[in-house]
Structure formats: C-alpha cells, structure tokens
Predict the structure.
Amino acid sequence: MLTWTDSHTHADFYKTPEERADCMQRALAAGVNKLIVPGVDSSTIESVVTHCQAYPLYCFPAIGLHPTEVKENYMEELAILEKTLHSPKVRYYAIGEVGMDLYWETQFIEEQKLVLRKQIEWAIQYHLPLIFHVRKAFEESMQILKDYKNENLQGVFHCFSGSVEQAQRIVDQGFYLGIGGVLTFKNSSLPLVVKALPIDAMLLETDAPYLAPSPYRGKENESAYIPLIGAKLAEIKGLSIEEVARITRENADRLFFS
C-alpha cells in the first residue's frame, strides 16, 4: 500500500471521540499514516495533545496562535503557549498555525505582526518549522520573513492558493507549499502553480475538516482524502501516483522529522 502524510489536519476538531476514531481508521486504511495536527490558540492545546497521545505512532502536535485569534489578550495567549513549549511532557513538531490574516478584519494588524515575530523567534529557538497561514496579507508576511532570511528558518505556507510568482518567492525563502483540496476544484488556478513549481517544494494536506477535495467539495474533509489530492497532483505533474506519494512524504519527513 502507498503511504502518505497529511501535513495539516485539525483532527481534534471533530465533535466526538467516535467521529475522531472513525476518521483515523479511514485515514490509516487509505495509507495516510502521518498527520500533523496544529493548534490555533491556548484553548486547543489540550484537544490537540489528547488526540495525538491517543495515536502516538501517527499523529504529531504543533502549537501556535492563529492570526484570527489575535485579540486584546494576545500577550496572555503568548505567555500560555510559551510556558507550554517549555514543558518537557510533550514534544511539538512545529510552531503553528501562525501567520497573518487580513481577510476578516484589520483591527489587530499590528498585534498580528508582533505575535508572528514572537512565534518566528520560538521556531528559531526550538529549531522547529513554521506552519504558516496567510490570507490577504502576503506582502506583509513576506516583509517580516525577510528579516529572518539568514536564521535557517523553515516551514510551509499551508493551504497555498496564490500565484506562481508568490509561490516562487515562498520557495526562494526556503519554505514549502502546502497543497490541499483546492487543487481539485473545477476553476482553481492552483494547477498552474503546481505545474510551474518543482514537486520537491510541495507537501500534501487536507486542512480537515475544511476544504474537502472533489468529489466531496462542500462536505466535511478528512485525512483519508489525501490520495485524491495526490492523484490530481500526479496527473498535473505527469508523474505516477507512487512517485507523488513518496516525494511528498519525504518532503514532510525532512521538514517535520529530520
């Protein structure tokens, strides 16, 4: 059986333990045997860790403050997250989900920048990759990352949906592109991006339970659908599905497990 990595899934978001167990069973049956599970704020620390401890051979936690969760209490949130990072009880495999998001509101743009810089510094300090979320804030994000160009900083721009030019700038910065279900959408421009960029710069992800690939678009997403995204990537790149599974898995191993 082919084996795959889901480099970004909110597996802890499913409503009940039974739903989470069913999703994991389907993922493993589909050959998806490594799942990176990012947090979004201090309130998700427990659910992320609990889920990953239930599946220690397959699920690997990340910790971070998502940009849309940056509010007036951001200093308090950062303090909780930093204290958790110092704890020897849990190994985290990435700082994430972090970044900038100006789609919903711009009230906390300066706070988002401060929070992002702080979490970049954690990534450097703990030698961890970043799981980067960007929406309507590409230039602002790249301007901040440029300040850390020589810090051996690595990561992935998760759920990438930008232009070829933006993708190239991300790769030049030393980051991977997270390719998800949008690749399979009928009018998506993402196929143009993956055709132009090397597969060595790509990870596969679901962002479950969001953004399910076709033919499940509009329904709840899950890690078992990673092979559907992989098959579309193989078609666009003119590669076998075996090659796509191997290369994207090895890319994820280099980023999160090396």
